[in-house]
Write a structure and sequence with these properties.
binds fe (ii) ion, globular, 14 strands, 437 residues
């Protein structure tokens, strides 16, 4: 049993490191050290920070081994230095950073053979290892977002996502019956503190889009003057729209009568039936109002994603409790774009809601708070220090998110003005009287 767990942990660590290596080997030294946007760290900072977190938690805490480089802890503490300042720090250079992460990894693989995986909550069912795998995967998604902001010739390539095979999803709604469901989890072994504990939430009947809002739908909002009509926007959203000069999703530009976008260095016409991506919360909210709808709440999103009306149970994923497979959702950077609506019929929820997991993170209209009974574990800086009204929640993961860091319970958060992340949305509305039950 624990030897299965140990080999699974080793395989996840190795698979994750292959992705980190791909993202950092794809560019030259100058590109690793350069800051591609004030919102992002230099890639070489992410790389050594990945190793430093692994050293802190696995080498020193779990393994009780000697420090590899305690002199650099402060440099790679995300709370000590905001991203915009990181290029000015005396960081490890690319050669040193690569050597550092591989030294740390060798020690971790060595201690993984012998360290007890029980007796301490931190190691129970491999949690600390799962946390570090997820941490590295989260930085891999951040590094992919940095790649998207980088200028210059393309360095990443991947096959196109599968085609849409379920017709008629765009503009279709699914009605979700009212009543209680279980939100959050007590049982998912690698679920992080903010996904816990499981609790009952009574959600009135509502309708939610069967698929994320597409580029084609979003273009209609733009064409209808959506960006010039204050009444679709919240006061804060409108102030931001004016100040930032927003006119379309990030990376879009006019192309004759239509639009083109640039993705990972390649510019092409916008594909109408793909989920829109690189929009901020305020843009999502304005679109929803224009469409006569609203954004779903976090509880609505999770109920649409996990609730099985046949059993009354909440599942780990829309498709059930089984692990992700590539035919169920666009995760894992297998494709470097969202897939068209209708591309993942095997990933639909029992209620018939598609593409909740993968493709694009979905903004929901809920501030970031702990669930009732929340307890920070193993450190407050993972999520508790972010609780409050400044952040909005995103759900479901994107094409840039790895399956190890994505579940029906997984919660992401960011400022409502952010759109360098792979963020999209779907809309919802209250069920009409008589439509609910
Ligand atoms: Fe981090």
């Amino acid at each position: 049993m624990t030897s299965d767990l140990r080999s699974r942990v080793a395989a996840e660590l190795e698979r994750t490191r292959a992705r980190t290596t791909l993202l950092t080997d794809a560019v030259d030294e100058g590109d690793l050290i350069r800051q591609h946007s004030p919102l992002m760290s230099p890639l070489v900072w992410d790389l050594a920070h990945i190793g430093n977190q692994e050293e802190l938690w696995l080498v020193r805490d779990v393994g009780r081994r000697e420090a590899v480089r305690s002199d650099i802890d402060e440099l790679y503490d995300a709370f000590k230095h905001p991203r915009r300042d990181r290029p000015t720090l005396p960081l490890l250079d690319p050669v040193e950073a690569r050597r550092y992460v591989s030294t740390v990894r060798d020690k971790v693989l060595d201690l993984l053979d012998t360290v007890p995986l029980e007796g301490r909550r931190l190691v129970e069912r491999g949690f600390a290892f799962g946390m570090i795998v997820q941490h590295e995967q989260q930085h891999d998604e951040t590094m992919l977002a940095t790649h998207q902001l980088r200028t210059g010739s393309p360095v990443l390539a991947a096959p196109a996502p599968p085609a849409g095979v379920v017709p008629g999803l765009t503009g279709r709604e699914v009605r979700v019956p009212g009543g209680p469901f279980t939100m959050g989890t007590d049982t998912d072994p690698w679920a992080l503190d903010n996904e816990r504990p499981a609790h009952q939430v009574d959600v009135p009947a509502f309708a939610i889009d069967a698929a994320p809002v597409t580029n084609g739908e979003y273009e209609a909002f733009i064409a209808d003057g959506g960006y010039d009509t204050p009444r679709w926007w919240s006061p804060q959203g409108w102030a931001h729209r004016v100040e930032a000069g927003l006119v379309a999703p990030q990376h879009w530009r006019r192309d004759g009568d239509g639009w083109a976008y640039t993705r990972f260095g390649r510019t092409t016409p916008v594909i109408a039936d793909e989920p829109v991506v690189h929009v901020c919360f305020y843009e999502a909210q304005a679109y929803a109002r224009w469409a006569g709808k609203r954004l779903p709440t976090e509880a609505e999103w999770e109920k649409a994603a996990r609730f099985d009306p046949a059993t009354g149970r909440s599942m780990r994923f829309p498709w059930g409790d089984d692990e992700w497979t590539p035919d169920r959702a666009n995760l894992g950077q297998l494709h470097l774009a969202p897939a068209p609506v209708g591309a993942y019929p095997r990933g639909a929820s029992p209620l018939g809601v598609h593409q909740l997991v993968g493709d694009v993170w979905e903004w929901v209209d809920t501030d970031f708070h702990g669930y009732p009974g929340f307890a920070a574990f193993p450190y407050r800086e993972y999520s508790e220090v972010f609780f409050g009204p400044e952040y909005r929640i995103l759900r479901g993961g994107s094409f840039g998110t790895d399956a190890a860091a994505c579940r029906g319970t997984f919660r992401n958060w960011d400022y409502p003005i952010r759109r360098q992340i792979f963020s999209g949305f779907r809309t919802a509305r209250d069920a009409a009287p008589g439509e609910g039950s």
